[in-house]
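pasting for the record
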Amino acid sequence: MKPEIAAQLIEINRQFYQKFGGAFSRTRGRIQPGVRKIIDRIGRDAPLLDVGCGNGEFIRQLAENDHRAPILGVDFSLPLLEDAVRIPNGFPATFHELDITDKQWSVVSGQYSVITCFATLHHIPSEELRLRILGNIHARLADDGEFIFSSWQFLRSPKLAKRVQPWDIVGLNAQDMDENDYLLDWRSEGTGYRYAHQYSEAALGALAEKSGFKVLEQFYSDGVTGDLGLYQIWAKR
């Protein structure tokens, strides 16, 4: 994918989450079943970085689960971060604005035992940007740590598949997109559009290999059919 096309797709998502961040947050008042399963896996004393933390609901659930170690949540949507900071008093979590497609993650220092990235990676266009992000995650993951993430499997849902829209609605050409890139509409409190990529297990395995990771585990969860999220757990090779 040409860098200028990737930049336009990032801008489409940025505009969506700035305009509809509040509406989106109101639809995310509870965590997904797959994320609930992950919470039971995370040690209470594990320093954690949550990439694409959104409205912070996952971190609030960690607080309810008596997590004790420091947590850093990063996201590029200020409306979502405004909701994220509503955490229990005294809980060791902080939040920073960060566009994870940037080359430098200056607001993220040190290393973490666990790095999570739920429902975020599928919004990143082009292999170049994905590998850049995964490189930043690799550099900040402890040698014995785990990178845990989920990827939206929207095409498994006939209802969600109907939300796929032609690229010319946003002035782009389908020929400029990579395979499995899609534009989906949003219909709550107005009409908006988001870019998303549907990953296969094989595609994620290839990304892991190229970025210095290995796949430890995976499972499907979420949605009425229990398979709208593909969860994988990676470790450093």
